[in-house]
Amino acid sequence: MNRSVYIITPSNQSGKSIISLGLMQMLQRTTPRVAFFKPVIEDKEEKDNHIDAVLSHFKIPMEYEEAYAFSRSELNELRNHGRINYVYEEIIEKYKKLEERFDFVLVEGSDFNEETSVFEVDFNASLATSLGMPALLVIKDNFDSVDELVEHVQLQLHSFVAKNIKIIGVFVSRCTKDVSAAEKALKARLPKELIVAIIPNSEELSHPTMKEIADELKAHVLFGNDKLDTVARNSIIGGMQLANYLNRISPDCVAVMPGDRSDLVIGTMLANMSPNYPRVAGLVLTGGFLPERSVVNLMDGSQHTLPILAVSTGTFETASRIANIQPKIYAGNEYKIRLAIDIFESSVGTDALSEKINSVKSETITPIMFQHNLLVKAKKGQKHIVLPESEDDRILKAASRLAKDKIGYLTVLGKPEEVKQKVNDLGLYWDDERIQIVDPLNSKKYEDYYTTLYELRKSKGMELAAAADLMTDSSYYGTMMVYKGDADGMVSGAAHTTAHTIKPALQFVKTRAGFNTVSSVFFMLLPDRVVLYGDCAIVPNPTAEQLAEIAISSADSAKTFGIDTPRVAMLSYSSGTSGTGEEVEKVRSATAIVKERRPDILVEGPIQYDAAVDPVVGRSKMPGSEVAGQANVLIFPDLNTGNNTYKAVQRETGALAVGPMLQGLNKPINDLSRGATIEDIYNTVVITAIQSTNK
Fold this sequence. Notes:
Layout: E1 4-8, H1 16-30, E2 34-37, E3 40-41, H2 49-57, E4 70-71, H3 72-80, H4 84-101, E5 104-108, H5 118-130, E6 135-140, H6 146-162, E7 167-175, H7 179-189, E8 195-200, H8 210-217, E9 220-223, E10 234-237, H9 242-246, E11 253-258, H10 262-273, E12 280-286, H11 293-301, E13 308-310, H12 315-323, H13 334-347, H14 350-359, H15 367-381, E14 384-387, H16 393-404, E15 409-413, H17 416-426, E16 435-438, H18 446-457, H19 464-470, H20 474-484, E17 489-492, H21 498-509, E18 519-525, E19 530-534, H22 544-560, E20 567-571, H23 582-597, E21 602-607, H24 609-613, H25 615-621, E22 633-635, H26 639-653, E23 656-663, E24 669-671, H27 678-694
Parallel strand pairs: 1-5, 1-6, 2-5, 3-4, 6-7, 7-8, 10-11, 11-12, 12-13, 14-15, 14-17, 15-16, 17-24, 19-22, 20-21, 20-22
Antiparallel strand pairs: 9-13, 18-19, 18-23
Helix pairs in contact: 1-13, 6-7, 15-27, 16-27, 18-19, 20-21, 22-23
């Protein structure tokens, strides 16, 4: 069952608070524990009204600080300093903590105080996509006609869908038009699968309470503290004679008058008690004046005390500020909260909406969530990884970052004094508890290691002296650390060839049971999803048997790293039975072997790349296939095709290629490209740590 939904809007003052309150009420009826999360709030100096209202009214067992991540100013500052990735990481981490504790998380996008910011709209869209959750789109009705409204909704819907957001419902809020006509027009021109609802404009919710007036004016409350939740529907100014003033009193108005006009104050209080005049919401006394003491005593002794506020500003300035108040729904105002929920429930088919939210299923894992999950798993495992190439600055820089992030423990191979000197020259953070430096030749385990190598390889003609010589090689020493259990995995190749990294592993770590092929996969972090490419780095021209092993290993790797349902496409230049030839037959044979050895794996082949990843093409070329159009594990027929494809996709789309990760070995040994960046090394160590955890 889907466990979250994101409320998103492209406009300011959209009325999405009503949607949030109504949704929370709906969700709590069927879900025991529902959390509320608003990634970005206006200001940290004052509590966010809406968070406070939701948490308190629905008695949600979470702290206020858990319900948000950043203020708007913090977001903009971090963005301006190029640290937007940090923003995503922190938001995702906070969200995931709530997801672990609660059955459902209701997420509300940020508000806009000024004209809609393109960045903030895109940011909220990106967050919804990154969190991999369905969204409800809220559009405010400020259009002259139903046609204009519908056209705007269509435009916004298209825009958000183009950003890869799964929109499951559209709410038009603050609607001033005929609700049935607007709803009919929208349903006729929007996709049938969407939930469509019209929330009528509420005059009651669009007026401030006396508390909001007091807060805006920073007023001193003289009387009526217990009645500040009274709604002020309009305001009147008292400046004329009493007889003329009394005729202007309207239902639930707030009367603004100079504090020294005792006649108007007393007249307002008497009118409020009389059945001949409408009820007054409150008084605001201006100019820094107060009525005479006798009048104050009269006010204090009245049984019908009004909220009476005192301010230092002038009458007209005060009235103007009251007129410009943007009303909010705040904690403790049960009347407005209940009214908002009632409006939602009378306008929205909650049964259909609940069913729609719960029915959303997604097997796609987003790149940001994928990276977040990697770090969480690696930190949890706290594995020990050996890095043999201390002579490379990139290795030391990556080790520094890994230690600082507390990903696990590291052994760097090299002469300690030389490594420490280089660390100092580079100005790197260094943690001696997390990073140990070992010189293979002078280590306490050197003799044990080369003796072990000799015993393992003597049947192949290796002599003891040759084993001792080989064990001075950092690749052999690091691999032996993994073999003996002194390290959980090894990452090498930044300064050495693939053959140099893999050869020791093939000699004594060997392949895992039932496999004869060591292969590799890249995790391709595309803009909207993560897919696996195999093999793009190791086996030049695999046989059908090897290709089948690559496919099986890759499917297992996909599950290890969070893709619950691997869908394997065995790629070729033809799909299904449309093509013939030696290469096509190899792929067809490999597909049959996978199906025979692992009937639990969803696999299709031969299949072309477009049919594998494009739903429309997939349905056209291979109707009824469980893989076509939705493949997430792509197996290339040879190294030439795979290597060129991954590099082309990486360069042309800006995708991040994480890997290669070796698979098929008994213990995790991973090879780096000699052009690897610090980020590549960091990610490969993280992957290696997770591999060892799952072993």
